[in-house]
Write a structure and sequence with these properties.
Elements: E1 3-7, H1 13-25, E2 28-31, H2 40-52, E3 71-79, E4 82-83, H3 85-94, E5 100-107, H4 115-123, E6 130-134, H5 135-139, H6 144-155
Parallel strand pairs: 1-2, 1-3, 3-5, 5-6
Antiparallel strand pairs: 3-4
Bound molecules: flavin mononucleotide (FMN).
Flavin mononucleotide (FMN) is lined by residues 9-15, 44, 47-48, 77-81, 106-109, 112, 135.
Length: 157
Amino acid sequence: MKTLIVFYSRTGTTRLVAQKIAEMVKGDLEEIKDTKNRDGIIGFLRSGYESARRKLTVIAETKYDPAQYDLVVIGTPVWAGNISSPTRTYMVKNKDRIKKVAFFCTLSLKDAPNIFKEMKEACQKEPIATAMFRRKDVIGNEYADKLKEFVSKIESQ
Ligand SMILES: Cc1cc2nc3c(=O)[nH]c(=O)nc-3n(C[C@H](O)[C@H](O)[C@H](O)COP(=O)(O)O)c2cc1C
């Protein structure tokens, strides 16, 4: 199965997970590049505001065409309980070019109850698998079991 892993990452956590998934499924990796400065407290506040309000941003042109893949795996950090605005922008732009989708997110808290519902609505597609990874587990490299479970779900499709 030809798989594309698409992610946005502000501070590297989501990138680590995306890279691991790409290695495990031998997929292509697409990093969403945002054009806004999200550094410092202003960047943090702007990011939270945009995500909570479901606002879009301007992202750089992407490398791969999702329509060329059997499955697109999309990963985002949770911002204000919601999809990071760069990831939402990618989803809205590409939803009609995605056949099958799987979602993952990284987050600091224990849960983000609405995140996959929001991702599903933004993509207008039911995911074949979802997974949530806590930042502390990713940084501490204690997420192998959860990752394996997610990847085996993807590969069984
Ligand atoms: C603007 C902003 C808002 C955030 N809101 C939440 C939140 O609502 N819930 C949560 O668990 N983590 C929240 N976080 C933490 C990130 O989701 C978490 O650190 C994530 O793993 C960062 O991913 P990254 O390193 O790929 O950018 C927020 C981070 C930022 C920058």
